[in-house]
Each structure stands twice: as structure tokens, then as C-alpha cells.
Amino acid sequence: MSGAPYPNHLRGALVQGQFVMTVEVTTPAATHPLDAALAPILALAGEIREDPRVAAIALTDRSSADRDHDPIATGHRVAEMCGKAPLIHWAGKDRSTADLETDLRRAASLGLDNLLLVTGDKVRRPPLDRPVRYLDSVNALHTVRQVAPTTLLAAAVCPFKYREEELLGQYLKAAKKLRAGADLLITQIGWDMPKFAELRWFLTGRGYDVPLLAELLYLTAARGRRIRRLGLPGVTITDDFLRLLVEEEEAPDRGRASAYRRLALQIVGVRHLGYAGAQISGLHTYAAVARLLDAVEQCAQACPTLDAWQGAWQEHLTAADGRTVRVAPADGFYLTGGTPTEGPAAASAGEYATFKTMELIHRAGFQEGAVGARVFGPLLRRLDGRTGLGGLLLQAERVIKEPLVGCATCGFCRLPETAYVCPETCPKGLANGPCGGTQDNRCEFGDRECIHNRIYRISKKAGTLSNLEEVLIPPVPDAAWDSCSWVTHFRGEGPEAVRLTTPTKGRAAPP
Ligand code: SF4
């Protein structure tokens, strides 16, 4: 049963091609008493109700803590106060497909029909009594799109990656998210404007005519220092940029005017770059939001063209000593009109030899019609994957594949779809591409290279990069864990990877 939906200004603006603004607020941690924590958010929502310049309030999920207050119930309170459909973020961290389906039903019953589906950053305090699993955003998007075809679905992308592997991993996964059902993409926070342009260029060049929203933060020196100290996955604040923020902090207003101007300039800039809108974060009161919106109007009048805007942005990034402030790392990788295959990243001889060996074994032993399949298939089909001979095979699989590829005996082997790099060697178990947390090609958890870099390099050499954009790898079914995947394979059990088609144009339109 569906509740009466709230007026959906976000969808309306996207459909009409109007530049759209949303204001992001942080859903309080579950440890904070809800009513007290929600009071300032509801006050903001009440004032935004009357301001046609803001289309929606966006509510984060599991970002301030591992457990925030329920995003659906919180979103409902905000919708009641604001009178506009909010954009509810939903993170797959420490959640399953069943959790998503439950929350989707609850959202529908409350008339909430805008969702941003993300995988989520790493769980900071993992429980000791069970493993933490992450529902990959691609799988979440695909699930929701199947059961709720009219929900407005947003997905995240981080263009602020400065190595070829991590950047293309992001972009190809973003394309997969669109194929899986996303109606629009929202970027990570950043200040590198050429990267905003690059993302637009990449998607348009591949035929993805999709609305893009830029996530933009009101940034002061104090906040910059805090982000660098605590780390915000996917957010880059260079030393040089921080120095500029510290210079601004010397002003009598502690740099507030500069922070508003920077944010207003960015909003006008992304508009000139063809973005459909901006999601503003870091402003907690309506007075602050209204001050920004006024600044945006002035800035738009002063910078009516992209050229005029570029001059103003260049001036903003000029330090007191006259040098241009670097907001991106030196020697960062950019796509400058070429194709991904022209970048420098290349699989090592060892990486590629392992891939070819594994591929050979798969072709000879497991593919339909292969010798191994014909000889062993009929026997394995009759086994149980945990007991008797199947149990012995499970032990054998563990002994062989754990040292070889880091196998976690998930019971649903996805190696042929992941260039024979086990997705369980990703701490989040992600199979469909990298999360947004990489930095300089390193994993968000800091202890390894992101496994999706290797998948990218091997796929590039093998000429199969399109798989990273098109092939949806389903999540491991709960029932499959700790069973022999060879048995599952020959029994034809478990979900299958599917090749996703190009998304339909203009899907954000109402039904
Ligand atoms: S391996 Fe890559 S995708 Fe997995 S958690 Fe680390 S950064 Fe994210």
C-alpha cells in the first residue's frame, strides 16, 4: 500500500530541465535522542517549505555513525514538516537485500519516493560476533528498480580520483549503476572543477544522457582541518588548498565570506558545465542557506558565461602571493579526450599470467561442454555442498583456492566475472566495482591496493573493460555461505550474472 506522496519538486525540476538545489542534512546518530537531534533539522525543513529555490532536503544515512536513526522514519518527519519529498540516502553497509526490501515497503507506505542508494563507508566499530557485509549499491539499485519502477533513484560517483585504475573504476561503475536503474548521479564533494567537467564529458561521450548533481560543501579552514584529520572517503583537500583556507581564516569573519563565495561560484560553475543541479552540505540553518542562495544569484549575474565564470574561479584560487592554488594532487590522472585504453595502467606479467591460467582451468573444467564438466558434472550435481563427498570437496576448495585467490568459500563463485580476482578480498566484498573510498589507488581500509584496480588492469589487457560497465554480479545468497561452489555451479543453483542493457532516456519522468 502506498501513502500519499509528497510534492516531488526534485523530480519536477529534473523533468523540466530546471537547475535544482537540494540541501543535505546529517541524520543524527542513533545514540542521540531523536527529538532533540531532529529539532534543528525540522526547523530548517519548515523554512525550506516556503522557499521555491530549494527542491528537497537530503538526509544522509550511516554517515555520522555506524548506526544513525532510521532514515525512513526520519525522512518521513522531515517530509511532514517540509511538505516536499525528501531525498533519502540509504547505505548498504551492514545491511542485506532483505533489509532493503523491508525499508522500501516502509518508504512506499509513507509516500517517500526519492532514494539515493550508496554502499557506505567502512564500519568503524565492527561487531565481534559476526562478519559485516555490505550490500553493493549496484545490487541495491537493481533490486529497487525491479520492484519499484517509479521510484526516483539516485546513485553516487566520485570523479576526484587521480590514478587511472581508481578513476576508470569509478566511471565504469557509475555507468553500471545507470544500467542497473539509477535515474541520476550525485558526485562526491570536491573542488577540482575540471573533474566535474571530465565526468560530464565521460558520460555524454558514452551515450549516458543523465542528470548530474554536484555535491558541494561549505568549506572553512576549521572544517578542512577536520576532514583531513578524520578522513572523509573520496574527499581531497591538498596542502596548498588548506593553506588558502588558513589565509582566509585570518579575515575578521574567520573566512566565512570566502567560503560562501567559493560555494556560490562552484554552484554557478557546475551549472555552466551542464550539471542538472547541486546538493549543498555543511549549512545547518535556513539563514545560512538563504545567504548562500542570495550569493548564487549575484554570482550568476556576474558570471553569465563559462568564460566569465572561469575568470572568477581562477581569481578565487589565486593566493595572496599571486600563485594559483592547487586543489588536486600534482601529476593526477585526467581523461583528456582520449579513451581509457590510452592510459598508462597495465597489468603486470604475473597478474596476467594468473588470469590466463585461471581462465584456462575454468574453460577446461567448468564451462558447459568442457571435458571436466562432462566427466564430473553428473556426479557433482547429485551432491550436497556441505555434507558427505560435497563436504570433502568444500575442504578441498578451501585448501586450493584460499591461498591462490583469497577464496572465502562463499559458495557462489564469481571469479569468471571478476577477472579471477576474488571479490571477497575486498573488505566490503564488493564485486561490481570499487567503492568511493580509494585514495591514490589504495583501499579505504588502508591495508592493501583496491582489488578493483587489478580487475581493471587485467580487463584492459584482455579487452574486456565493457564487462565492468555492463555485467551485474548479484550478491552472494545468505544460504550459499560455507558451501562448495563447485557443487552449486554444476547444480545450476544461485543467481546468475547478467549483462545490463543501456538505460532508457529520460527515466526521471513521472510514470
Ligand atoms: S578494496 Fe576497493 S572497493 Fe573494496 S573496500 Fe577497499 S577501496 Fe573499497
Describe it for me?
With 511 residues, this protein is of the alpha/beta class. The protein has two domains: 9-235 and 275-287, TIM Barrel (Alpha-Beta Barrel); 346-499, no CATH class. The protein contains 18 helices and ten strands. The chain has an eight-stranded parallel β-barrel with strand order 1-2-3-4-5-6-7-8, surrounded by six helices. A two-stranded antiparallel sheet has the order 9-10. The mean pLDDT is 94. The structure holds iron/sulfur cluster. Iron/sulfur cluster (SF4) binds at residues 426-428, 430, 434-435, 437-438, 443-445, 450-452.
CATH architecture of the largest domain: Alpha-Beta Barrel
Number of helical regions:
18
**CATH class division of the largest domain:** Alpha Beta
Strand order of the largest sheet: 1-2-3-4-5-6-7-8
Number of strands: 10
Estimate percent helicity: 40-55%
Distance between the termini: 17 Å
Write down the overall geometry. Answer: globular
Detail the poorly predicted runs.
none
Named CATH topology of the largest domain: TIM Barrel
Tell me about the largest β-sheet. Answer: 8 strands, parallel, barrel
Bound molecules: iron/sulfur cluster
* Radius of gyration from the alpha-carbon trace, in angstroms: 24 Å
SS content category: alpha/beta
The structural domain count equals 2
Strand content: 5-15%
* H and E string: HEHEHEHEHEHEHEHHHEHHHHHHHEHE
Q: What value does the average pLDDT take?
A: 94
